[in-house]
């Protein structure tokens, strides 16, 4: 048992201390605390430990709301006051920008906040049938484990969905294919809730009746997914669910399918779109590109602002749905969508689309290095970059600032995933 003083938090939300020249990463510890801890992994240059006792607590330490915190791996920071969580994430962003990219923002933007609880409108729940634990387990993985946490509620899911977990376990117990349902995906829209059951074998007639009864009793739409995400089909009701989320400030409804990528936190997404458009400072008649546009989350807001918007995306099905969303919102003339693999082709083909006055970039965790390297000298005068990985943002920022002639005007965090160490951010680059 070690007694250590914690200096900071790492990017996984663990306390960082040092002893004998080695870093010790302590799960459950907060900066400024003195703790005792138990080491469970030793490496030549670091050790990983878990808090045993807090001898001197941080003033930002709070009691976790969830009874499964510490067991469930879904959250890592419930013991830290929410505003302090955001301060930690801001420090991670600024540290990565400097240590990886050797850049600092001219202005630190105010953090984007939303609700701290009940915010998850998307979730992928793992299912395991474990007779020794009484039957089906449905939830997130245990921390540092492939086992499923034995949980009957979840504080970051909306209350109505958290309340479905125990009935869902009972449903799985009653299925003949209970060992062949590895996952249930939750997709929530403004008007309906969908549960997508991943089924490795076809349900029999009795299973189908149980699934229908569950859907009716709890007011959800049930989909079955026999193979990849594109195979998901409505089961009950048999009609496709009208899934959408709204962006009221732009008078938009964005439709999506249950397995499409959408932002987990709808409330924060609304604020993020508003912030991105304000930072773009779009003028009517300008040409604006939205790279990695997905369903048109930003593209359609740009089009609604009076600019000519071009959404670019490598997934043909997302391009089709984005175009349908443009038509649904009466923006088919103002927004166009182009299929282009931005990883394979980088920015090389962007020149074929003509000059853009401004650009929004919202890439996956791998970032947009191929795009930023290939931007032409007469590239857009302003780029707003939405990031879900501060390390790849910092890498890309280094190219934009040190090679492409941009300045990092501003940057700040977006607390899309409260109680986790996940850092989303928004940055502005100007020629």
Structural features:
431 residues; alpha/beta; OB fold (Dihydrolipoamide Acetyltransferase, E2P); Rossmann fold; 3 domains; six-stranded mixed sheet; 9 helices; 29% strand; flat
The CATH top-level class label of the largest domain: Alpha Beta
Strand runs, count: 22
Oligomer: single chain
Distance between the first and last residues' Cα: 54 Å
Based on the coordinates given, report the CATH architecture of the largest domain.
3-Layer(aba) Sandwich
Strand order of the largest sheet: 7-21-22-20-19-16-17-18
The CATH superfamily of the largest domain appears as Vaccinia Virus protein VP39
Overall geometry: flat
Radius of gyration from the alpha-carbon trace, in angstroms? 23 Å
Please describe the biggest sheet, giving its number of strands, its sense, and whether it closes into a barrel: 8 strands, mixed
The domain count comes to 3
Total DSSP helices: 9
Annotated CATH topology of the largest domain: Rossmann fold
Measured by DSSP, the beta-strand proportion falls in 25-35%
Helix content: 10-25%
Structural class: alpha/beta
Low-pLDDT residue intervals, each spanning 5 or more residues: none
Task: Give the integer mean of the pLDDT values.
Answer: 95
């Amino acid at each position: 048992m070690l007694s250590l003083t914690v200096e900071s938090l790492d990017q996984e939300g663990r306390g960082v201390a040092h002893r004998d020249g080695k870093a010790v990463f302590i799960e459950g510890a907060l900066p400024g605390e003195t703790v005792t801890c138990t080491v469970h992994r030793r490496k030549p240059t670091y050790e990983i430990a878990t808090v045993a006792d807090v001898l001197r607590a941080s003033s930002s330490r709070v009691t976790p709301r969830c009874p499964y915190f510490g067991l469930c791996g879904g959250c890592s920071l419930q013991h830290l006051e929410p505003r302090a969580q955001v301060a930690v994430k801001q420090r991670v962003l600024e540290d990565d920008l400097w240590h990886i990219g050797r850049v600092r923002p001219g202005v630190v933007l105010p953090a984007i906040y939303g609700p701290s609880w009940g915010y998850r409108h998307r979730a992928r729940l793992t299912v395991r049938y474990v007779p020794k634990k009484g039957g089906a387990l449905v939830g997130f993985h245990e921390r540092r484990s492939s086992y499923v946490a034995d949980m009957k509620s979840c504080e970051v899911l909306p209350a109505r969905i958290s309340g479905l977990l125990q009935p869902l376990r009972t449903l799985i117990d009653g299925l003949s294919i209970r060992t062949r349902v590895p996952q249930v995906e939750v997709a929530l829209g403004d008007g309906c809730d969908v549960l997508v059951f991943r089924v490795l074998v076809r349900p029999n007639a009795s299973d189908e009746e149980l699934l229908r009864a569950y859907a009716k009793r709890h007011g959800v739409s049930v989909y079955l997914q026999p193979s990849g995400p594109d195979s998901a089909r409505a089961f009950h009701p048999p009609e496709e669910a009208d899934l959408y989320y709204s962006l009221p400030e732009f008078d938009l409804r964005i439709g999506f399918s249950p397995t499409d990528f959408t932002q987990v936190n709808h409330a924060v997404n609304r604020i993020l779109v508003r912030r991105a458009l304000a930072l773009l400072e779009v003028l009517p008649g300008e040409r604006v590109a939205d790279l990695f546009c997905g369903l048109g989350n930003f593209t359609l807001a740009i089009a609604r602002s009076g600019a000519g918007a071009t959404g670019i995306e490598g997934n043909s099905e997302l391009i089709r749905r984005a175009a349908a969303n443009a038509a649904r919102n009466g923006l088919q003339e103002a927004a166009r969508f182009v299929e282009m693999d931005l990883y394979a082709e980088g920015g090389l083909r962007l020149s074929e689309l003509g000059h853009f006055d401004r650009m929004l970039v919202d890439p996956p965790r791998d970032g947009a290095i191929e795009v930023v390297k290939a931007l032409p000298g007469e590239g857009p005068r302003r780029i707003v970059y939405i990031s879900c990985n501060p390390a790849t943002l910092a890498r890309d920022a280094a190219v934009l600032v040190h090679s492409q002639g941009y300045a990092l005007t501003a940057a700040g965090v977006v607390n899309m995933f409260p109680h986790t160490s996940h850092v989303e951010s928004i940055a502005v680059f100007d020629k």
